[in-house]
UniProtKB/TrEMBL annotation:
The keyword NADP does not apply. In the presence of PdxS, forms a dodecamer of heterodimers. Only shows activity in the heterodimer. One of its GO terms (molecular function) is transferase activity. Catalyzes the hydrolysis of glutamine to glutamate and ammonia as part of the biosynthesis of pyridoxal 5'-phosphate. The resulting ammonia molecule is channeled to the active site of PdxS. The gene is pdxT. HAMAP family: PdxT. InterPro entries: Class_I_gatase-like, PdxT/SNO, PdxT/SNO_CS. It comes from Microbacterium testaceum. This is Pyridoxal 5'-phosphate synthase subunit PdxT. Signal peptide: none annotated. L-glutamine binds at G51, E52, S53, R112, I141, R142. Its EC number is 4.3.3.6, 3.5.1.2.
C-alpha cells in the first residue's frame, strides 16, 4: 500500500509541524518533514503549519526554499496552510512586518492577528457546509482572517461578522484555525483528496 499512499510534506522550518505529520500519517499518507528543496521535490503536496509567518518567511529564504515553494504553487502542487500557513499562501497581507513576504497563490487579503489583543485565542463551533453537517471545532490562536477574496477563491467558512476563516482556490486550501490540534481530520482529508486528484490527472512529478 505504501507505494499508493500520497507522499506529502509538512514545511518544517518553524511551527506545529509534528501535529500535522501525526494527522496526515493517521489518514494513511506517507508524511514527512520538508526543509530542503530536494525534500520538496519528493512530495506531491505540502502543508504550511501554524507558527509565526514572518519567521517562516525568513527561514524559507535562508534555507533556499522560498522560490522552490513559489514554483511548486505555480505548478499546481496542492497545499494546505493553517493560520501562519494561510498568511503565507495569501497574495496580500495587512499587518505584515517590514519586508515580510508571502509565497502567495491565494487571491485573498488576510489581516494578521485579526482578533486583537483581547481575543488572542478563542474556540468556536463553525459550520463548514463543504465538509458535511457536523460543525468544525475551530481553535483560533493569534489568528488571521480573510477580509477580501477574488472571484476564483471560494470561502468555506465564515464567522458571524462575515470574515472568512476557511477558503479554497483550486488545489490551495487555507484555514485561519488549527484543525490539527483538535482531532478534526476533514481539512487534511480534503487536502489529500487534492493530491490524489492531481495524481489521477496524470500530472508530472514536481
Ligand atoms: N499570528 C501569527 C502570524 O502572524 C499566526 C499565529 C498562528 O499560526 N497560530 O504568523
Amino acid at each position: 500500500m505504501a507505494g499508493n499512499s500520497p507522499r506529502v510534506g509538512v514545511l518544517a522550518l518553524q511551527g506545529d509541524v509534528r501535529e500535522h505529520l501525526a494527522v496526515l500519517s493517521a489518514l494513511g499518507a506517507d508524511a514527512r518533514p520538508v526543509r530542503r528543496p530536494e525534500e520538496l521535490a519528493a512530495v506531491e503536496g505540502l502543508v504550511l503549519p501554524g507558527g509565526e509567518s514572518s519567521v517562516i518567511d525568513k527561514l524559507a529564504r535562508a534555507f533556499g526554499m522560498f522560490d522552490p515553494i513559489r514554483d511548486a504553487i505555480a505548478a499546481g502542487m496542492p497545499m494546505y496552510g493553517t493560520c501562519a500557513g494561510l498568511i503565507l499562501l495569501a497574495d496580500r497581507v495587512d499587518g505584515a512586518i517590514a519586508g515580510q513576504r508571502t509565497f502567495g497563490g491565494l487571491d485573498v487579503r488576510v489581516q494578521r492577528n485579526a482578533f486583537g489583543p483581547q481575543t488572542q485565542s478563542f474556540e468556536t463551533g463553525l459550520a463548514v457546509p463543504a465538509l458535511g453537517d457536523a460543525p468544525v471545532h475551530a481553535v483560533f490562536i493569534r489568528a488571521p482572517a480573510v477580509v477580501e477574496w477574488g472571484r476564483d477563491a471560494e470561502p468555506l467558512a465564515s464567522l458571524p461578522d462575515g470574515r472568512v476563516v476557511a477558503i479554497e482556490q483550486g488545489a490551495l486550501l487555507g484555514t485561519a484555525f488549527h484543525p490539527e490540534s483538535t482531532g478534526e481530520t476533514r481539512f487534511h482529508e480534503r487536502f489529500l483528496a487534492h493530491v490524489r486528484a492531481r495524481r489521477g490527472a496524470g500530472a508530472p512529478a514536481f
